[in-house]
């Protein structure tokens, strides 16, 4: 019961804000980048165990932390989401770190077959050929440079007047169904 000295060192993902958007009965759970540590005082465990959490279940879910296992908690799928919700997520790639992994994809599609991703993180990016003078200027003036993949966008829509309606996904750019990454 002593006061804490200093500020706890939490990563930004530990302080990620999860939102439940309620629109009639077509709720959306926006999982941000909240991670799961197994500590009941933090992350998804804290939300699942919270007596004050809303009881509404969601039909759509922004899957947290790029689909990584570190953002997964079985209780979210059991207690916060309807059966087979529509899911969406963004990919992550930085050097050899690519998310979601093939194991992550397999885990997610077991919970729902209606899930989309903004871009395929496994597509090889073509390097851009530049003039030698331009390359030298880039090396001299930047710490590092990397190309950004084709970007995609997922738009979910639902007929709020129809209580039995499902979310419809419109895909733009590089967005695609997550299950296509299993092929």
Q: What is the strand and helix layout of this fold?
A:
Layout: E1 19-21, E2 28-30, H1 43-49, E3 58-62, H2 74-80, E4 81-89, E5 92-94, E6 97-99, H3 102-111, E7 115-117, H4 132-141, E8 152-157, E9 168-173, E10 176-177
Parallel strand pairs: 2-3, 3-4, 4-7
Antiparallel strand pairs: 1-2, 5-6, 7-10, 8-9
Task: Explain this structure.
The protein has 183 residues and is α/β, with parallel strands linked by helices. The protein contains four helices and ten strands; from the N terminus they run ββαβαβββαβαβββ. The strands form three sheets. The protein has a six-stranded mixed β-sheet with strand order 1-2-3-4-7-10. It has a two-stranded antiparallel ribbon with strand order 5-6. 28% of the residues are buried. The model has no long low-confidence stretch (mean pLDDT 87).
Summarize this structure as a short list of keywords or feature phrases.
six-stranded mixed beta sheet, two-stranded antiparallel ribbon, globular, alpha/beta
- Based on secondary structure, the structural category is alpha/beta
Individual helix count: 4
| Tally of structural domains | 1
The percent range for helix content is 10-25%
- Quaternary status of these chains? single chain
Question: What share of the residues does DSSP label as strand, in percent?
Answer: 15-25%
Low-confidence residue ranges: none
Beta strand count: 10
Q: What is the 3D shape?
A: globular
Mean pLDDT comes to 87
Order of helices and strands: EEHEHEEEHEHEEE
How would you write the strand order of the largest sheet? 1-2-3-4-7-10
User: What would you report as the Rg, rounded to the nearest angstrom?
Assistant: 20 Å
Main sheet characteristics: 6 strands, mixed
Distance between the termini: 55 Å
